[in-house]
Amino acid sequence: MELYGFYAPTGIATGDTIISWLFALHMASVGGVPYRIFVAVLGLGIFALAISGIWIWWRKRRGRSPA
After folding, report:
1. Model-level pTM?
2. 17-67 residue pLDDT tens
3. Helix, strand, or coil here: 64?
4. How many domains would you assign to the chain?
5. For the stretch 53-63, what's the b/e string if a residue is b when 16 or more beta carbons lie within 10 angstroms of its beta carbon?
6. Phi/psi of residue 8, each to 5°?
7. Domain range for 9
8. Are residues 36 and 57 in the same domain?
9. What's the rounded Cα separation, in Å, for the pair 47 and 30?
10. How far apart are CA 13 and CA 4, in angstroms?
């Protein structure tokens, strides 16, 4: 006996359920306002890390003396 797929009790295929949950998390439509605030703060943190990394790289690059 081979298992070709699994259907949840709701009648929806497992893959479709996972995709719908991932889409809902990506669009921040789960968890209400606290989750949206968390996603926004996380996004700002990632942006700050990228900017600070570029700034540190630029400072080191500028500080090098020509050989």
Report:
1. 0.60
2. 888 888 988 888 888 899 889 989 999 999 999 999 999 999 999 888 666
3. coil
4. 2
5. eeeeeeeeeee
6. -65, 165
7. 1-30
8. yes
9. 23
10. 11
